[in-house]
Amino acid sequence: MTPLRIGLLGIGTVGGGTYDVLTRNLEEITRRVGRPLVITRVADLDTDLAKSATGGSAEVTDDAFAVTRDPEIDIVIELIGGYGIARELVLDAIANGKHVVTANKALLAVHGNEIFTAANDRGVVVAFEAAVGGGIPIIKALREGLVANRIEWIAGIVNGTTNFILSEMRDRGVSFADALADAQAKGYAEADPTFDIEGVDAAHKLSLMAAMAFGVPVYFEDVYTEGITAIEGVDIRYAERLGYRLKLLAVTIRREAGIELRVHPCLVPEDVLIANVEGVMNAVLVQADAVGPTLYYGAGAGSQPTASAVIADLVDVARLISADPGERVPHLAFQADQLSDTPVLPMDDVQTSYYLRMRLADEPGVLADVTRIFADESISIDAALQQEPGKELAADFVVLTHMTTERAVRAAIAAIESLPTTHSDVVLLRMEKLS
Ligand code: NDP
Ligand code: HSE
After folding, report:
1. Are 173 and 223 within one domain?
2. For 133-168, what is each residue's pLDDT tens digit?
């Protein structure tokens, strides 16, 4: 059995986990693949750390290009991250005829169209199961398990760091800053954690899932992205009183005129499964025409869970390495020459339900004015909650709307904010029933 020789670039959180899991489970994995998968070379800037992590069983270098150009290497695993050197290394590995496994969603969301084209031209695979949902095999599901279906929508919690922060804040009353520091210490967060908390990481992942669901290019630039930094505890509590949980949701929906692509904090009914996904766990709900809804759940980040997905890709590549490139599963699930140019809908055209919180004067006729504005915009109210007025004779008024458009809600908000009896800006959160 000739071993498959692997070069690992970056032996940090995920790279270290990959090395450990592959070493620990090598015998079992070899029984599955039919030949051993061996990491023979490791590149990391910290060569001492790499030497101690590998215990001398792999050749260590600080020059990653020496690995991508090594004729003895069959597969390169890129676990450095970012779009800079990682892009150069991945393109160099492809140019040198190596198959590539990466967990780098940022790289693929921004440069995926270029990278997949280069890989197709060279006849090599770029596998990226770990890039979305950590250890959850969601890429496999979208690319293979669901291919009989016309996918209608996807809604997911795909960022472990923000889900961890929201859970810690809600359950244990931990501050935002402390919860983020904990997520960083546990190795969940990106090198630049603003990618997590501002929703960018979830947008990277959503653009990849949408491409595979709908057969469109990777549209990262068009994802509407809103993170969790502006969330106030009061809205988490009002949402709970109304029977909802607040989650950072990545949503893509196929509409007649185009596709919705959006990441934002979102109320979800507390009795749907996804509302109860806590901590670093991720979940992706896929609605498809034949199978109906399917839900994929598991650890969305962390060393060994992510390593599980990286190694699944290694096994896939090992099994397909001698297949004709034209017979392999396409990178983005659809044949590269069959992508459609379905547009991404502007946010104004998005259709969903809304949570709106406003502070109103405690005077006769105030609610009538507000409800008249909703009626003028053809917005139907689903539920409402009014707080007892305080000393300042104003009170929070929270409204849940039925399905409407973002355009109508924005117009209603502008009208409400211009009333002399409105004492605050209106807080807007979106809401998905997921049914
Ligand atoms: P880490 O920062 O823990 O690891 C990256 C490693 O790459 C470090 O050891 C770093 O060395 C090394 N490195 C940096 N530059 C170079 C270079 N030029 N040549 C060789 N090595 C280099 O990151 P993670 O393991 O957390 O993330 C890796 C990738 O996996 C990212 O794309 C991330 O988005 C993705 N990912 C991460 C998950 C997680 O839970 N952490 C989950 C899913 C995906 P040094 O420290 O010395 O700079
Ligand atoms: N920073 C990411 C997260 C890592 O928190 O989900 C997994 O992609």
Report:
1. yes
2. 999 999 999 999 999 999 999 999 999 999 999 999
Average pLDDT rounded to a whole number, residues 337-366: 96
Residue 388: pLDDT band (50, 70, 90) is confident
Domain CATH number, residue 121: 3.40.50.720
**Same structural domain for residues 94 and 186?**
no
**Which of 340, 82, 108 is closest to 220 using CA atoms?**
108
Both 183 and 274 in one domain: the answer is yes
Specify whether 376 is located in the same domain as 271.
Answer: no
Please spell the DSSP secondary structure of 303-318, one letter per residue.
Answer: HHHHHHHHHHHHHHHH
Query: Which atom belonging to ligand 2 lies closest to the Cα atom of 189?
Result: 1
- Chosen domain end from 233, 267, 299: 299
User: For residue 190, what is the DSSP state?
Assistant: -
Ligand nearest to the CA of 76: 1
- Alpha helices (H) in 34-175, listed in sequence order: 47-54, 64-68, 85-95, 105-122, 138-140, 160-172
Ligand 2 within 6 A of 199 CB? no
Catalytically active residues are 205
Q: What is the DSSP string of 390-401?
A: -TTSEEEEEEEE
In sequence order, which residues have a C-beta less than 8 Å from that of residue 85 and are 6 or more positions away? 64
Residue 404, φ and ψ in degrees, nearest 5: -155, -170
Cα 142 to ligand 2 centroid, rounded to whole Å? 19
* Closest-approaching ligand to the CA atom of 106: 1
Atom 38 in ligand 1: which residue has the minimum CA distance? 301
Angle formed by the axes of helices 85-95 and 105-122, to 10°?
20
> Longest Cα pair distance anywhere in the chain, in angstroms?
84
Q: What is the pLDDT of residue 321?
A: 87
Are both 55 and 116 inside the same structural domain? yes
Residue 300 beta carbon below 6 angstroms from any ligand 2 atom: yes
Q: Is residue 190 in contact with ligand 2, taking CB distance under 6 Å?
A: yes
Distance CA 188, CA 280 (A): 8
**Using CA positions, which residue lies closest to atom 11 of ligand 1?**
45
Closest residue (by CA) to atom 1 of ligand 2? 189
Could you give the number of structural domains in the chain?
3
